[in-house]
TrEMBL record:
<dbReference type="GO" id="GO:0055085">
    <property type="term" value="P:transmembrane transport"/>
</dbReference>
<dbReference type="GO" id="GO:0009116">
    <property type="term" value="P:nucleoside metabolic process"/>
</dbReference>
<dbReference type="InterPro" id="IPR009486">
    <property type="entry name" value="Pur_nuclsid_perm"/>
</dbReference>
<dbReference type="Pfam" id="PF06516">
    <property type="entry name" value="NUP"/>
</dbReference>
<dbReference type="InterPro" id="IPR035994">
    <property type="entry name" value="Nucleoside_phosphorylase_sf"/>
</dbReference>
<protein>
    <submittedName>
        <fullName>Purine nucleoside permease</fullName>
    </submittedName>
</protein>
<feature type="signal peptide">
    <location>
        <begin position="1"/>
        <end position="19"/>
    </location>
</feature>
<keyword id="KW-0732">Signal</keyword>
<dbReference type="GO" id="GO:0003824">
    <property type="term" value="F:catalytic activity"/>
</dbReference>
Amino acid sequence: MRSASMNKFMSWLSPLVLAVAAGCASTAGPAPQPVPVKVFVGAMFEIGQNTGDRAGEFQHWYERYWRNATPMPVKGALSPVYCNTDGVCGAVLGMGKVNSSSSMQAILLDPRFDFSRAYYVISGVAGTPPSRGTIGAVSWATWLVDYDLGHRWAPEENTAGAPTFMPRKGYEEYRRFRLNPDLVAWAMKLSADTPLKDSDSARTYRLRYPDTVARGAPFVGTGTHMTGDTFFHGPGMSRQAQYIAKLYGADDYVITEMEAAAITLVIKRTHGTDRVMSLRGMVNFDQGNPQETTLQHLDPAPGQTAGGFAETVENIAAVGTRVVDYIVVNWAQWQGGVPAAGAR
């Protein structure tokens, strides 16, 4: 049983505790509002720093949008997120399916960001078949196809010339994504005439290939981007990628990369895919020229590489920023969804 003096003390203490608690609440202020993301740019790697040295996939984006942005570390993501005052955010997600998609998932679930109306640009370098692309060219994906979700076996265990891949049942919702045709049409409308850089080394290297497209100048195009953790290479693997694209009803295979389908699956489960874009620049061919073996092409002698990497990463950002800037400037028309492709 409390004494009279104890009761008196408690009656004096209670108002004081309440007052202190109220004071703490008032000084803490309201919780900060999440950043309303308009466009998120995800790159896969950077070579060194985000600015001032040799540029990888992220640097040109960073220098355009986030020079003065404060890095925002995200638990579970490879690198910090950067955002500007216009609602353009970006990060380096990491190379490969697991690395990149786990980073994207962590960022999407961070309550400091509001992705409910966001558009996404999955951006990076890639390979291309010499029959469909060239060094320095840039491609918007119409389809994303996963190269790996199926059964494979050695060619010598099969009928000569027959496919050595069979899709695995149960992966129908994960193995391909058709990206919003209106959004792809907008991307091409806004960026197809972007002036693209080229290099003397790339011009010389292209002449090793007989294909008309491979020998031509860089351009902006579209097609299927094939996502595989394995760096598949050689004419046989290239034919298999094209076979898979056609098997799934997708457009021609034009890009080999390692992340886009996995990242898109993560986005789909959270916000859908209507606002996803995949943008890739071609820095290598997916096979050697007729005078070299696949292993020779994978491990070239000094001075025998394609060149053109620096120009290609500039081309990617030059093409992509046209679309990002247009969406941001015209946000009143874009925030509710992709306008009809014929409108402008």
